[in-house]
Amino acid sequence: MFAWDSRPVAAKLPLLALALLLSRPGLTQDGATVRPVLTPQGQRKVWMPATQARVEGAHPAALLVLHSSASSPAQIERLTGYTRWARQEGFLVAYPEGLDGRWNDGRSDPFPPSSGQDDVAFLSGCLDLLVKDFGADPKKLFIVGFDSGGSLALTAGLQLAGQLAGVAACMAGFSASLEPRLATPCATPMLILQSESDPCIPFQGGEVRYFGGKSRGQVLPSDRVVQLWSGLSAPTDQVVLAGGRREMWGAKVVRIRLTGAGHLWPGTEAPVSEELFGPLQRDLAASQTIWDFFRGQW
Question: What is residue 269's predicted lDDT score, i.e. its pLDDT?
């Protein structure tokens, strides 16, 4: 997420603490296997539970879970708990790995990923692997991501509209540079979970900054994203939640709008730093909320 700069050491301490927090070791609960995925830019890696196997005659749903910047598949597995969910609910799960922990989500970033990195093509290859080698139902393919992984999930939802049954983004934004591609509503069902108080991804749009650091590109205002994605000017229904509200924008677009929450995965039991990221929303279980949304798409 960060590149070294010339500021005094004291000014860098929050960034160093973040890097240490995100680099803490984490392992999937039942081990992990790494599968290669060939892309136009070369071979990439996707992680999946070691116990996951093809079951003849079964065609389960499949979920790609995308980590944040400066993080890893092991970290997002621990944060979301989707390996356990997959075992309980009977779906397939895989954790793609960003190059050097970064994703190309369409933002104009002063610290961009490797030149020509086509992460949407990589995700498409991961989905193909789950269908061909594990028997996933090609009509039940989903992507969820956190932070920049969520931004990439939205980008993939737009570019792979005919391949995906749904996408979800948590504490993420949609790249302002991709706005022209939403000239017409997107057919991919979408859930976006955002906080009006997110200290990193501005709810009202603008520059993405981590703890006062350099700009990491621009995202659209949250309202603009759901309006363009759904083709509607206002929500068609809404329900009050603890710490926010759930908005329905037609039949296929949902926004969970939180107040007073920080840049954290709501409901997580993983160690987090609220001092760095802001308050953790404990009244909403993001992993279950997102899976319930996906399950409602078939």
Answer: 72
Q: What is the pLDDT of residues 35-67, one digit of tens each?
A: 999 988 889 999 999 999 999 889 999 999 999
Look at residue 11 and tell me if it is in a domain.
Answer: no
Residue that has been written with the tokens 């061909």 in this structure: 132
- Counting residues of the chain whose pLDDT is more than 70, the rounded percentage is 86
Predicted model pTM: 0.89
Phi-psi region for residue 87, left (φ > 0), alpha (ψ -120 to 50) or beta? Answer: alpha
Helix (H, G, I), strand (E, B) or coil at 44: strand
Q: What does R_g of the chain's alpha carbons equal in angstroms? A: 18
Task: Report CA-CA distances (Å) from 129 to 42, 108, 188, 237, 295.
Answer: 16, 30, 21, 38, 21
- Would residue 220 count as lying in a domain? yes
Q: Which residue has the tokens 């991709």?
A: 178
Question: Which of 104-118, 131-145, 155-169, 209-223 has the least mean pLDDT?
Answer: 104-118
Q: Does residue 3 fall inside a structural domain?
A: no
Using CA atoms, how far apart are residues 127 and 165, in angstroms rounded to an integer?
Answer: 12
Angle made by CA atoms 185, 188, 189, in degrees to the nearest 5 = 105
Q: What DSSP element (H or E) covers 166? A: strand 166-170
CATH number for position 214: 3.40.50.1820
How many domains in the chain?
1
Distance CA 189, CA 11 (A): 41
